[in-house]
Amino acid sequence: MSGEKTEEPTQQKLKKAKQEGQIGKSQDLGAWVGMLAASIMLPRTLRQAMEHAQELMEKVPDTIIDPDPGKTLAILREALMSAAWAVLPLALTMMAVGVVAAAAQGGIRVATKLFIPKFNRLNPFSGIKRMLGPQALWEGFKALIKTTVLGTVLWFTMQDMIPVLMDAGRLPLVTLLGVVSDAAIRLIRAAAVAGIVMAAADYFVVRRRTKKQLRMSKEEVKQEHKNTEGDPLIKAQIRAKQMAMARNRQMADVPTADVVVVNPVHVAVALRYEPQKGAPRVVAKGKGPLAAKIRDIATENRIPMVQDIPLARALNANCEIGQEIPAEFYGAVAKVLAFVMSLKARGAAAGIHRNPNPTPAAA
């Protein structure tokens, strides 16, 4: 059936879907990649923060001995600046990762149409259908897998930490903090890697579902092609209008011609010769009804017409309107113009005249 959506979406349909925010992407991919990047940046951030904190703690005794409010505020300001500088690389990394992850899944675009309220989004039946449909089943399965994988990663990580925590009372505080922080970072990295794998699978599922939703019927593809390329009927009408305008323009130039070479009935070519502009030019030409129109205008404006069947056919076939005649027609046209000048000298140029020196070679 023509209504079945069996065709792949066209580029125009995909572009429109992007503008409306209908892009197949995983919301989790950017978050998990960001977490992995954070686990890489976090040790450096914590180390810088601890170094700055140690420097500030060394200034505290002097402040206690001499409790000057100005010094206290200076230390507080320095602490805030140190914390900001320590966290800044981590924040910039997270931001860059988020932008790259979004761009890799179809680009960054503000879908303003999503802000326009649509009543079909408030339809409770559509909401129930989404809750009980394949998408809801996939989301539930994905949540189950996510919980299982993260639980497994946490279990194996904690197994390595339990012996250390059992002997925590025998270890120095600095050593214990280092062991715990290393274990926490390993846990974050393992969880992030597992999350990225799950998010990649989710991305392909969502992409496939979105592409399926955007499928088109044969009739929709045909209609979009018609809208993009143009309706053949409309294009034909435009061409007809353009041809009519071109005919009107050349008809307006016929009164400026010096001679019209005719067939005498089927073909007419109007020529104008201006020595300062070069060779004679074709100002109008045509066959059938158009040739008849050219002859009528020439008669009304007393433009001389010369009957030369071979020359008329050759000029009509080989010359374009507004262009100079080719060099091979110079001699034949020169004879016609000389004949017309002799007619004008006698005052008998108007009307149709047979060329006394026809040139069969011009055919």
TrEMBL record:
The keyword Transmembrane helix applies. It comes from the Bacteria. The chain crosses the membrane at residues 83-104, 136-156, 183-206. GO terms for cellular component: plasma membrane. GO terms for biological process: protein secretion. The keyword Protein biosynthesis does not apply. Pfam families: Bac_export_2. InterPro entries: T3SS_substrate_exporter (IPR006135), T3SS_substrate_exporter_C (IPR029025). Residues 1-22 are annotated as: Disordered. Residues 1-10 have a biased composition (Basic and acidic residues). Keywords: Cell projection, Cilium, Flagellum, Membrane, Transmembrane, Transmembrane helix. This is Flagellar biosynthetic protein FlhB. It comes from Actinoplanes philippinensis.
